[in-house]
Design a protein that fits this description.
Blueprint: E1 2-5, E2 8-11, E3 29-34, E4 37-40, E5 55-56, E6 59-60, H1 91-95, H2 98-105, E7 109-113, E8 118-120, E9 128-142, E10 148-154, E11 159-160, E12 174-187, H3 188-195, H4 199-225, H5 228-243, E13 247-248, H6 252-259, H7 263-275, E14 279-282, E15 285-288, H8 291-297, H9 301-310
Antiparallel strand pairs: 1-2, 1-3, 3-4, 5-6, 7-12, 8-12, 9-10, 9-11, 9-12, 13-15, 14-15
């Protein structure tokens, strides 16, 4: 793959992180070669507005608007809005075709989701679904003895409760906003009605549910077999991916609950990462200093879970 700057060919840099943005001086680019197809720059613009990114190797790079690269038209955050005019960043809601989005849009309600907000409780009848725009939800398993452990994470890539994709109205897990944000609320009655006429939405939700099930299974094995410092590194990476920030407002007590251990053990594991200058922490927050070293410190579960999510969204059926 190459692009041209003032007539000179340059190889693009390869990155192991598929969500890492690739920056270019787009005003100087005359044509881009993507998957063997050369797309030439219009004298005044790319498509109808300036192109600031494109699809590379199946991963979408940010653009100002819908791009038509490789036949995969996907809106970007802010291009779609809720009935209240709130911009949408949820990946599922951005992935579905326009007609299907219009069908579900009318039932979406914007909602702010502060940290510690409970979205649904285990074993109780479910009434609503949530498509996160920002922040992160933890799915937590609670025992009858008051013990807790996190079994899954949901960010703007997905929705909760997961069983809603199959029309189920109960779940064994509690959903709590671990990192505050916002999103869109829809009644399950309205969602089930919309899914009857939105096959692509149903497909993406089904794929997300399947991928999330793999995450839960991988997390269970990780919690049983891997060292706490590896699990902590894996958890921090997954959280950073969903929050989009290196500063995570979380306490050691909360980390202990999420990882199914005690606070002294979490403090010891965090201290090891801090000693290696991978993270730093203060009361109520953890800051990632070196993402590359954090990836090296994590177990293989992080990479496997990321591969799962790489398969979540279809190439874009129209």
């Amino acid at each position: 793959m190459h692009y041209e700057l003032d007539g000179r060919k340059h190889l693009t840099a390869h990155t192991a992180n598929p969500v890492a943005a690739t920056q270019f001086r787009m005003q100087e680019i005359r044509e881009i070669n993507i998957r063997g197809k050369v797309i030439k720059r219009h004298p005044k613009s790319w498509f109808t507005e300036a192109l600031t990114s494109f699809e590379i190797g199946g991963h979408l790079r940010r653009t100002n608007r819908v791009g038509s690269v490789g036949g995969n038209d996907v809106p970007h955050p802010g291009e779609r809005t809720s009935p209240e005019g709130k911009p949408i960043s949820n990946i599922i809601l951005l992935t579905i075709p326009d007609d299907e989005f219009s069908e579900i849009r009318r039932s979406l309600e914007y909602i702010e989701l502060p940290a510690r907000t409970i979205l649904h409780e285990p074993k109780r009848k479910l009434e609503s679904a949530y498509f996160l725009n920002s922040g992160m939800t933890s799915l937590v398993f609670n025992t009858n003895h008051g013990e807790s452990v996190e079994v899954g994470l949901v960010g703007k890539e997905g929705f909760t409760p997961i069983p809603a994709a199959a029309g189920l109205r109960r779940t064994p897990h509690q959903a709590v906003m671990q990192v505050g944000g916002d999103g869109f609320h829809i009644s399950l009655d309205a969602l089930e009605s919309a899914l009857k006429t939105t096959p692509q939405l149903q497909q993406v939700m089904n794929r997300y549910a399947a991928v999330h099930g793999m995450q839960v299974a991988q997390t269970a094995g990780c919690n049983r077999l891997h060292d706490l410092d590896q699990r902590l590194a894996r958890w921090l990476l997954l959280t950073q991916d969903r929050v989009g920030s290196g500063l995570l407002k979380i306490t050691h007590d909360f980390l202990a609950t999420m990882l199914g251990t005690d606070r002294p053990s979490v403090s010891l594991a965090a201290g090891m990462l801090r000693k290696k200058k991978i993270i730093e922490y203060t009361h109520g927050a953890v800051k990632v200093l070196n993402r590359k070293k954090l990836e090296s410190a994590a177990c293989e579960c992080y990479g496997l879970i990321q591969q799962f999510y790489g398969e979540m969204v279809p190439k874009r059926a129209s």
